[in-house]
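#lab-general

N.A. 3:47 PM
ok so I finally got the sequence cleaned up, no stray characters, all 716 residues accounted for. can someone with queue access submit it? mine expired

B.Y. 3:52 PM
send it over

N.A. 3:53 PM
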Amino acid sequence: MRVKIEKFLPVVWICVFSIGFLVILGRFLFIQVTGEVSGVDIKALADEKRTNEYAIPAKRGTIYDRNGMPLAQDHTVYRIYAVLDEAYTSDPLTPRHVQDVDKTAKRLAPILDMDKNEISDILHKGIENGRFQVEFGNNGKELTQQQKEEIEALNLPGIYFNDEVIRFYPNGMFASNTLGLTNKTDDKIVGISGVEKNYNDILTGADGYISYQRDKFNVKLLNPKEVVQEPADGDNVILTLDQKIQTLLEDSMSEVVEQYNPERISAVVMDAKTGEILAMSNRPSYNPNNLGDVENWYNDVISTPFEPGSTMKIFTLAAAIEEGVWNPNDTFQSGTYKAGANIQQIGDHNWGKGWGPITYLEGIQRSSNVAAAKLAYEKIGPAKFLDYLNAFDFDTVSGIDLDGEVAGVIQYNYAIEQITTSFGQGTTTTPIQLMKAATAIANNGKMLKPYIIKEIADANTGKVLQEGKTEVAGEPISAETAKKTLEVLETVITSEKGTGYKRYKLDGYSLAGKTGTAQIPHPETGGYMTGRENYIFSFLGMAPAEDPELIMYVSVKQPELKDNEPDSAPVSFIFNNVMENSLRYLNIDTDQEKTPSIPIIKVPEWKNKTTKDVADQFEEAGIQTVVIGDGDNVVNVSVEAGSEITAHQKVYVLTDAPKMPDLSGWSLRDVIKLQSLVGFEMNWSGEGYVVKQDLQQGSSISSNDELSIELSSTID
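B.Y. 4:20 PM
back already:
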């Protein structure tokens, strides 16, 4: 029996192996036919394992001023990394990984501003931990083109770069609270405040991608099966801001900060006919390229309500005229006013002394609190006056197309609040609410909604996708009332009794306006702060007075004044300088005798002329000229023929043989003007003025060149 079993064992084993072989063969045939293992597509898995896919970031849209000057744009920087894996080197004669750690650390240290031992430690630890590659912390990020080129010139094996995009603001601390800030989230730039946040979806495009097959060393195969999906760039946002007017405002505010060290400044310039914001700024502010310690993140013009003080009397006056209860020749007893036995007494700003019996016209000129109180509480009546406050939209936000607007609050529950609101105390508002209400005075009774977005345009084609437009938000008063109000407000400036007399004066232009001296609530006592400097000094003005083209508001909180200085000195410095020069820049006709303090020059015709002829013409006209190159003929000039400029403005003349000038001491704005003429690519690092350039003075330049400059706030 045993013999018989042993006789059949080979047959059994053959059968077992045959069955096993058939099972395995069947499995292979199944895999070959279906391409699946345990429900997984192995071909797709293999493709996935050997395929690299990278996002191609969309370019974030640029924010421009109304004249095409970039205010916020993408800027390419570089991140350095070191490959440590020896397997990445296929040819020992051309190493592709870091071979000499100490040499690499020593050569990189001065360029990355790091200690060589710190770099050496990073490289050694990476090697010890079997890392394929390492980076160098914050010092290895956001490198400039110049740093990248310096490192590449060292020819260090294993050192590579990745491109990065950051958001850059060419003008530094320029409308910073308005433009806003961005942050990087998952390598994507996202707006977190201002225009950047409000229009983030429009500025942000759709990323593309590129995929290809590669080997284990991340090298593209000969047949990589490459797929490219191009990104869709974000749209551009064009603001109503005017770079020249904004610069006037920024420079004036900076001077006041330096001289008077105020707690706060807010200012805004608006086109009275359209509602367009031409300039807007605050102090403290910040440089979005280098934040440092930021004292104030808010755009106070739209986000910080406060008790406005006597600028509110503009609207008390307008309401009285509209109601027919304004008689400029009626008289009242100035000094103090007590509307009822149980109502708190209020007083005029000169500690309740007043000026005796005076007319209501003189009361407005002298900014009498009693005059405003009697107009609102006795002549107009509290209920009707509240209707006017609502009609002027003091109960709601202005609706400006910016993120973060906060409305003031009309405090009107008690008789004393109804009285103090008439002269801007108790009730709160924002500068932008005041500006919106003032458009009704300047624009024949039609109140305009303020706006700051002029256009949204396709970044590639320039096609306008959306336009800002003038929008009438209401008509709180008639055209006749608006005209009479302007006439009264003009006397605040022209009358010797006016609080704006001699302090607010525009050379060549009439002006209507109202001063304000607002008390500041005490943070502890519940009352108001005392002391000469503990006020918010302000002015709201419209020019030319008869038919205003511009409206401007300035407020300065707690400036440090000298004993012999008027309270209005910081405010009037900003207002007079910005308003007068803005009117001239916009070529608005003068309506008074003009005595120019700054020469205005009309740019001569320069097209189709020789360099010598243009240079001679400009010199004769008193124009500061910078000639670019030594060509015989003029190709382009930085200003149009026929335009008006001040004697302080530099004009750049591009010849047909352009050469690189010595840029030492040039501002970034000046270099950008040169770039716009020549068309070269540009990279920069630092802030302030040029201290280093890589294209040498006298070398030929063209649109094919790339310029790298280094800026510093201090010049040797």
